[in-house]
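U., I forgot to send this yesterday:
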Amino acid sequence: MTIIPVILSGGAGTRLWPLSWGDHPKQFLPLVSNKTMIQETLLRLSNLEIDAPIVSCGEGHRFLVAQQIGEITDKKPTILLEPMAKNTAPAIAAACCAAMKRDKDAIVVVLPSDHVIADVKTFQSAVMTAAKNAEKGALVTFGIVPTFAATGYGYVKASGAETDGAFTLEKFVEKPCLEKAQEYLASGEYSWNSGMFVFKAATFIEELKVHSPEMAKLSIESFEKAAADSDFIRLDKDSFGQIKGDSIDYAVMEKTSKGKIVKLNAGWDDVGSWSALYDISEKDENKNAVKGDVIALDTVNSYIRGGKRTIATIGLDNVVIVDAEDSLLIARMDKIQDVKKVAEEMKKRG
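Result:
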């Protein structure tokens, strides 16, 4: 069985401004460890017998991808350059074409490049369980066992008895209100939608042809007409540009009868905000998560990340402070979701 990691690296990560921004989105930053998030994503599979990765990214990030992947593996990656953002389904379809070029029966493990998973052994075990189901023709997603009634995640519902480590995928649910989220948590039938998938590349293409035929045609065409450019493969701009972009959930997973869920309880987080990063970070006796050169006096419950300068705080509670090369963020923890608006304003200013 040939297992190929497919790493999706097209996100902008503006909710982690000012560090994640422009040419340096969060997947290329060492936010949790001394490795960047895209490196951690690949290293998570390092004890398994896997083939060289396929990475899908935009033009502007191609050298970062090549450099950071090259730092952690001798296996030369296939780097697919998306001419423009078209959501996850077309990127995955093109990656599946690249995987089938290596092995027509290849199994792909589709991973966003910016997640955190604390329990790597449990994750690896779940990957192998999913791969065994994928060998039999299933399209598998990982359902994250919920630890609280989250309103910031979509959900997947499992049905039937567990067979070969997987449940039948009944449906996807959009981000719910708090009351619904509490119902989902109490039922035990719902998991958080992880955005991670395992399937045979050929099975995904077959299902895409059934449920989103035009996207399948154009995605395949964009790969077949792709141009090799040094270490990169440029997907054909004309074909790719005609695709009506959509997520893998909408394009395939919500419609397929082959969907399965492998439940995963491994300390997963999508690190979608500074408050999320605070939650998973180690804290001192004052419940502060501190990185860099920081003097925190009479300061509690805060995330403080220094850059080249010393940061000194006095008498603060429940704040986020992030010092970047040319920008400084200071915000109340309960308002941190609005940092995306700052990134939008920065974009307007050019």
